[in-house]
Amino acid sequence: MTITRELSFNLSGSVTNMGLAIIGTTIRLYDYEYRSGSMVKRFLIEQTTSPKGTFNFDVRKGVYCIEIVPGDNTRFARQSLETIKVTSNTTFSIVLKAGNILSGMVRDHQGKPVSNAEILIFGIEPHVLRVTQDVFADGSYSISLPGGRYYVCVYHKNRGDNAVSARKRNPAEKPFLCQIMEVVDLQRDGKKDFQLPELVKFQGIATNKAGHPVSAVKATIQATEKPDTVFANQLPLSVTCVTGKDGKFEACLKPGSYNVKLEPPADSHLAEKQFGSVLVDQERTKAYSLDAGHQLSGRITHKRMPLVGAKVTIMGVKSETSQWTDEDGHYCFSLGSGAYELMVSAQPHPLGQETFPELAPWNGNVILDKNTELDVEMDEGLLINGRVLDPARQPRAGVLLSIYPSRGSGGDIAITNKIPLAVGITGSDGAYEFRLRPESYRLVLNNQPSTAHAIHVGAAVKDRELTVEDVCVVTFEVASDEDVAIPNCLVSYELYRAGDESDELVAELMEPGMTGDDGKCTITVPSGIYSVHFQPPADSEFVLRHIRQLSVIKDMTRRIRLARKSDPQLQ
Questions:
Q1: 8 Å CB contact between 63 and 75
Q2: Three-class SS of 487-511
Q3: Model confidence pLDDT, tens digit, residues 271-293
Q4: What span, in angstroms and rounded, lies between the C-alpha atoms of 334 and 266?
Q5: N-terminal to C-terminal alpha carbon distance within the chain
Q6: Domains of the chain by range and CATH?
Q7: pLDDT for 4 beyond 80
Q8: Is the pLDDT of residue 165 over 50?
Q9: What is the chain's percent helix, strand, coil content, to nearest 5?
Q10: Integer CA distances (angstroms), 267 to 76, 92, 336, in order
Q11: Element (H or E) spanning 436, and its range?
């Protein structure tokens, strides 16, 4: 996250039970980063609670997630706190409660234990919960959860996606990819065993044009279709493996269609390659010939000193790959011929472990038709700061801001890619701050493209106070007819436009939201008329609801009631 004025804040709390401090509870801290056009959780660090039951992280402004993992020798239930917006010192009082033990075994279709797996759990109702649990060496698992209904997913756990990790794997543990999601109603201790279906062995052989095998090629196999669930973006739908000296990789897959991406090591002078809609309906071996590629390499520096850990992202028409610079500031990609956009970000580490807050993100285009060396000297950016205010000129705190490069002039400015150059969040006083190079940009609020504001950074420092008078904050309170809050309800919406001949809905892509334990979801949109859709998980006891036309002309709170599936009026 880009810092905004204050360097860091305390994200702290205490863990208790019946007023007594709980020692030795593991607290895991995550933040969010953009990958392939969406925000995903990234593990940062963990610590255990002190003798006083406290924890404390020194973090910058940003959006975080905390997972609370009680000791294995207790019955305390797991908890998670999602999308915590840190705009000032933030403290939580976490009360542990006894949970119900969910345990069981994971076996393959022949009944043999599967140990290279992980359990992923999503709360359906009444809790928002996102936790994981390793499967033990004997194929068993055990986890304590609050009473409720859950999706329980089983998937292969990658032990690393490089050649060193691959050599350390148990040869009998083949990577597997299949979508196993079961609904568990856990009102007391329960058992749930999982058995993988009979999978198809899929083997690939990576060679160069001369037919020689290529080792250390990273193979990513991804399911072509996503499951129809509100949690689809959070499900692991791919598996990775690495070729050995014989150029072979192997995975066990559920029959279906898959995309395969091969990334050879940069020093191989071979280009990464993607293969779409590969049908795996029976055991088969498929040879993949990698074309000669060109190296795109260089060094990222500031004042001629190397920048360690700078993120370098290269984007083509159908590809996106990132890596981080080494101790000498070097990066190296091996790619096919074509046009690419390169983005370099050297923003501060969320935990304050790296100190280059004043460097502006860099982006540029490169035509790759030969080995190319492109060094990037990162400059101190020009200060762009201001505040985000509501129509009453009161500060809007905790607004997520994204900076995108723009092209064109006047009104013809369009966001050119899905990855922001920089991301920040407004403080309690509504303040934001970025360091940028002289160029044209768009500032987007809360991931909503329709809120984009054009910014031109000239040769002089600009102080821009952005008064968001055309953007409204709408809070939906989703509940049952008995006023019970409904969590995990996906709230999606699109601009409603009346056609000349009939009222037709013209879809406009907007980032959906999801209700928390309190049933609330807040969105940021320009004034207008919207169609809004409220979609609880498919296995929830509630039915979805649509509002065809909702007029939004100011900040508002709207109570939304969902009917139960058991309602006689729906029969």
A1: no
A2: CCCEEEEEEECCCCCCCCECCCCCC
A3: 888 888 888 988 888 899 998 88
A4: 5
A5: 49
A6: 9-95 (2.60.40.10), 100-289 (2.60.40.1120), 294-377 (2.60.40.10), 382-467 (2.60.40.10), 471-570 (2.60.40.1120)
A7: no
A8: no
A9: 5, 55, 45
A10: 50, 48, 14
A11: strand 431-436
